[in-house]
Design brief:
about 260 residues, mainly beta, single chain, 1 helix, 13-stranded antiparallel sheet
């Protein structure tokens, strides 16, 4: 079976407006459109505390408009779509997925805001349960949840200073919050950087990352990163299932070579 993450057609409606129809990635984050092109950002991977979501694609239509008011650029994107994931033990239907993404650019800074709503229907498939009286079939009830997603970003590229920051909030009856701040400085072909990211819900995650990017070729970059993770959970349930009480710390050293051609 072939799984296609992106497959859409585009039509240039006006010089400033493009209409896309098909299967596309939701613009939930600043780096959503070029998440797979790691050369475009200074990390090896964007902060997982913020970017680690279970689903990010939708089938539908979106409209992108870009307009400049002298030196101020305004990009607006709206979308509507649906998606179905038929797994072995559950069927997940995403319906009424609609939202707006607005970004303002002025010289060396960019401001971005996202508002997204959707309905998630979860229909567990019948299960066979072994009881003292033998096997019985259990048919769990289906459920529907309305979800609201909000996000904001503030980005700076001022001379040699690089600043990245994003904040997200998911409300499905219980709030899940995440965000990060990242600071880098370019010394010629070298860009050392530091990132702090955090996730808060039933569990809490905190990550400190220091790294170095070396652009040793015009289209190639070598990256090295060290991350220190702290995870703590009191137990409970989230959108992706139950979470047991737990706490641990871990470290990760990563090396990557990114290039474009």
């Amino acid at each position: 079976d072939v799984f296609i993450e992106w497959a859409y057609v585009s039509y240039q409606l006006t010089p400033e407006t493009v209409v896309n129809a098909g299967r596309f990635r939701l613009p939930l984050f600043y780096y959503s459109d070029f998440l797979d092109a790691a050369y475009a950002y200074h990390w090896i991977r964007p902060p997982a505390d913020t970017y680690g979501i279970p689903a990010s694609t939708i089938t539908g239509v979106n409209v992108v408009n870009t307009h400049y008011f002298n030196s101020v650029g305004l990009t607006t994107q709206i979308w509507y779509g649906a998606e179905t994931d038929d797994a072995e033990d559950v069927t997940v239907d995403i319906t009424k997925s609609q939202g707006i993404n607005v970004m303002v650019e002025y010289e060396w800074m960019r401001l971005r805001g996202v508002y997204h709503t959707l309905m998630v229907g979860i229909d567990p498939k019948p299960l066979l349960v072994n009881t003292p009286g033998g096997l019985i079939q259990v048919d769990p009830e289906a459920s529907n949840t309305d979800i609201t997603y909000k996000a904001a970003a503030f980005m700076i590229d001022y001379e040699s200073i690089l600043w990245r920051s994003e904040y997200t909030e998911v409300d499905n009856g219980e709030k899940e919050k995440s965000g990060y701040v990242s600071l880098g400085y370019q010394f010629g072909t070298l860009t050392p950087h530091y990132t702090y990211s955090q996730y808060e819900a039933v569990e809490e995650k905190q990550t400190h990352t220091i790294g170095l990017r070396w652009d040793f070729k015009p289209a190639a970059a070598l990256k090295v990163e060290y991350s220190n993770f702290h995870y703590e959970s009191e137990g409970g349930s989230t959108l992706i299932g139950p979470v047991e009480a737990d706490e641990y710390r871990s470290e990760l050293l990563s090396v990557a070579l990114d290039f474009i051609f």
